[in-house]
Amino acid sequence: MNKLFTSPYLRRFIQPALIITAIVSFIQFTITYGIIVGLEKQTLDFPSFYWASDVLFNHNISPYDVDYIQKYTGLAVFPFAYAPPSIIFFYPFSLLNYDSALILHLIMNHIFIIIFILLLNKIFRYKILSHQSLLLIIMIYNSYPMMQNVYFGQINIFIIVFLLLFVICEHDYPVLSSIMLSFAIIIKLYPIIILLILLISKKYKIFINTIISIVTISIISAITIPKFVWKDWILDIVPNGGYGKSPKGFSDPSYSYNKSFNGLFSRIFTKQQDAYQLMDYPLLAKIFTYSICILLCGITFFVVYKYLNDNQAIKKIVLTTMPLLFMIAPVSWNLHLITLYPTIIYLFDTYYHKFMKKINIGFILIILTIFAFSSQSDLDISLFFVFMLWVMMLEVLIETTRSKHDLNVILET
């Protein structure tokens, strides 16, 4: 099999084919999800970011007052549910009209996709225009979750770029690294799990730097953001942000697009929107969801504590945490799958080298995952593939540590 993939005749054909496919993928994506989306101006999630910023900074109204926003705009705008400090990141939108802000957001999404690809090349040491780099471009620009992110006007590409910068800047720019992690936490909150894992894995310096950054941003937010905003978030959003329920204006947790364990158990044990209509025991849905999510976190924490002790610890922490976050989040749509692509690439590299020596199920699962994530389908299979990514990452962490231990034993003898 090695001879097949290293054949000079095959390589001579593959290189130009990959370049052409990468260029076509980029152009098609840019036209469809850049120019056309910009002209049509019809997005699902961007209006909640824009109008939350507009009503707060231009009208001194709470961004969580969905009734006012919908009455003010005359639109069925989804509620803004992020923590108050995150609204600072959307402040520039309040300086522009809606159409201009949408174009700005669209351009930023496309720029960050390019940054995302460049960062992945750097992290995995792919040379520009190498086969790996070209395949990466093709995969990203044909990714259904990536298409959804740009089309809906989402911000997940910004979150994953912040996390990759956190990884890349760890050694040379530790303070900047911590700031990048704090940005991701302030905006989405879910990445706070990474902070806990840093503490468990005894990365005290990065942990403290990130805490300082989060506290600094929070103090600035407390000074600049009115108290009624914090009050609305604490009283209206936080109590309804757990498992088995959702804030006012949001879909039920059982909504078919919710691919997390919260969505799965809500569909099984309730008769809410898109549920399987099997039974109606909401309490069971909560019990199962909390139980499985606590178990997943506990297993992750244990494996990290016991087996993660190499110089790539930060990278592996992020790559392991991404599947975990998708599974335990109250709401995880397919568009959130773009945050798992670094994990997929890492596992692809790991299992590919094994596959060249011997066929293994891990590599086949990664290939199936790539195809599943790239297909324009909302079938309820995403959670299975995400779970398998998490299992394989834990396996790699354990196997790597054991291999190093065995090597040290051999060298000592």
Describe the structure.
This protein has 413 residues and is mainly alpha-helical. It has one domain. It is 70% helix and 0% strand. The chain is built from 18 helices and no strands. α2 (8-40) runs antiparallel to α5, α16 (341-357) packs antiparallel against α17 and α17 packs antiparallel against α18. Mean pLDDT is 88; it is low at 1-5 and 405-413.
How much helix, percentage-wise, in residues?
A: 55-70%
Distance between the termini: 35 Å
Question: What's the tally of helices?
Answer: 18
- The geometry reads as globular
Whole-number count of domains: 1
For the CA atoms, what is the radius of gyration? Answer: 22 Å
Order of H and E elements = HHHHHHHHHHHHHHHHHH
Assembly classification: single chain
List the uncertain runs.
1-5, 405-413
Query: Major sheet: size, sense and barrel closure?
Result: none
Sheet-strand content, in percent, reads: under 5%
Helix and strand content put the structural class at mainly alpha
Question: On the 0-100 scale, what is the average pLDDT?
Answer: 88
Index terms:
413 residues, disordered N terminus, disordered C terminus
What is the compact description of this entry?
The chain is mainly alpha-helical.
